[in-house]
Amino acid sequence: ASVSEPAQKCCTENIQPFLTSILEELMGPISSGFMEVRSLFDKEVNEIIQDFQKTNDMTRLKENVDQLMTLPFNSVKMEPCYLKVNLLQEFLQDLKNRFKVYHIDFVIQRTQNFMQELMENAVYTFEQLFSPSYQADSAKVATTIEKVKLRVLK
């Protein structure tokens, strides 16, 4: 009871006025990282579509979709996504000094884990929605891939 009032006053005067701007600053790199995940998924599926349109080979298409499933674990391809979030390091350092925010690396690592999880969910959903189409007419497959991609991106 004796600590509650001074703690509330401290939060109201020294932290609450800055919360909105802090969240906006944090969301910049985080949103950028998640947009990079979306862009990478889009690019990879577009490459599958282009390859299929050139070859019209269903076996190769299956191999390409199987390879897409490994995308979340491909550190080279995911690296640009992770680098966007690394910008938090600089910003969080300022927060650490101003508000005694600790465990900056943990915040960045968790964000990168969420990005990987999002990509895992995207490729899994893509595979689940597209897999019945392997028996479809090959003339419609590229269109089906595009529709599934758009649905996943939604």
Give the topology string: H per helix, E per strand. HHHHHHH
- The N- and C-terminal alpha carbons lie at a distance of 49 Å
Mean pLDDT: 89
Q: Biggest sheet: strands, sense, closure?
A: none
Query: Number of helical runs?
Result: 7
Whole-number tally of structural domains: 1
**Helicity range:** over 70%
Strand content: under 5%
Number of strands: 0
Protein name: NIBAN protein
Family: Belongs to the Niban family.
Domain Niban 1/2/3: 9-154
Characterization of the model:
- Belongs to the Niban family.
- Residues 9-154 form the Niban 1/2/3 domain.
- InterPro entries: Niban-like, Niban_1/2/3_dom.
- This is NIBAN protein.
- It comes from Copsychus sechellarum.
- Helix content is 84%, strand content 0%.
- The model has no long low-confidence stretch (mean pLDDT 89).
- It is elongated, with a radius of gyration of 22 Å.
- It is an all-alpha fold.
- It has one domain.
- It is built from 7 helices and no strands.
- The protein starts with a helix and ends with a helix.
